[in-house]
Amino acid sequence: MTRTVNLPGGTGLPMIGFGTWQLRPKAAYASVREALEIGYRHVDTATLYRNEADVGRAVKDSGVDREEVFVTTKLRPQDARDARRTLESSLRLLGTGYVDLWLIHWPTGRDELVPTWRALLEAQDAGLVRNAGVSNYSPALIDRLTEATGRRPAVNQIAWSPAQHDPALLDEHRRRGIVVEGYSGLKNTDLRDPVLTGIAGRYGVTPAQVVLRWHLEHDIVILPRSSRREHIAANFDLEGFALTEEDVAAVDALARNA
Q: Can you tell me the distance from the alpha carbon of 225 to that of 241, in angstroms, rounded to the nearest whole number?
């Protein structure tokens, strides 16, 4: 069973999610079906990815109860003025009455920052969204949203990898009670690095598994993506080993060497 982190909306967010960026429709459907069969219960998509219909169909056809699958989609900044209509389109494509998390994919223009956030909160109050959050936002921008509305984003989804590790930024999110989801953790990492291959060799796992486990040790939600079943399975199989404090520190240090 994947561990979860509790969100203000009362839902548990599985810390291992399945990403679908760059997965074309056929691959998105097949890969999400594989992921759910393997045990994933968190699927991440976006309007931008153009695969919401395939993701939704895969969830429906999987036989897993909808309530057991945490589904995220995202709003493109250029759709900010039509936020509710865009969400309704996403829900139709996904074939569900609600999403568990709706994110603003990137910061909008200055004048639309707060109105867009209000639109997400209104959708949450209407029951169309269980949790609202952002992606690629700085703590300062998050503070603007919170100060204007009295409600902070539940999640900030940002690029994160050993080379990008920033303890101070992580602490800024922790102090605000915001969950960090890291994306492109494997894409932005040299998996041949001797630090990673050395740790992997000691535990009999792959360097990719070391990187993903390292994210979990820092309580960062992960969203690995693959269209190959063996990689989808390996990316989920992270509970059979744990990194020591020394291992975590060694991976952390890769940021200083990047």
A: 21
10 band by pLDDT with thresholds 50, 70 and 90: confident
Q: Which tens digits make up the pLDDT trace of 12-61? A: 999 999 999 999 989 999 999 999 999 999 999 999 999 999 999 999 99
Residue (of 244, 218, 211) closest to 166 by Cα position: 218
Sheet holding 221-222, edge to edge: 18-19, 42-44, 70-75, 101-104, 132-135, 155-159, 179-183, 221-222
The C-alpha angle 14, 198, 4, rounded to 5 degrees, equals 10
Residue 47: strand pairing partners: none
Cβ proximity of 20 and 194 under 8 Å: no
| Three-state DSSP state, 15 | coil
Amino acid, res. 74 = K
Rg (CA), the chain: 18
pLDDT tens digits, 163-222: 999 999 999 999 999 999 999 999 999 999 999 999 999 999 999 999 999 999 999 999
Q: Which of 29, 40, 49, 137 is catalytic?
A: 49
pLDDT of residue 1: 60
Count CB-CB contacts under 10 A for residue 187.
12
Q: Would you state the pLDDT for residue 258?
A: 62
pLDDT range class, residue 256, cuts 50, 70, 90: confident
Query: Quick check: is 40 catalytic?
Result: no
Query: What's the one-letter identity of residue 258?
Result: A
Q: What 3-state DSSP class applies to 3? A: coil
115-118 contact pairs (CB < 8 A, 24+): 115/80, 116/75, 116/77, 116/80, 116/83, 117/145, 117/148, 117/149, 117/153, 118/148, 118/149
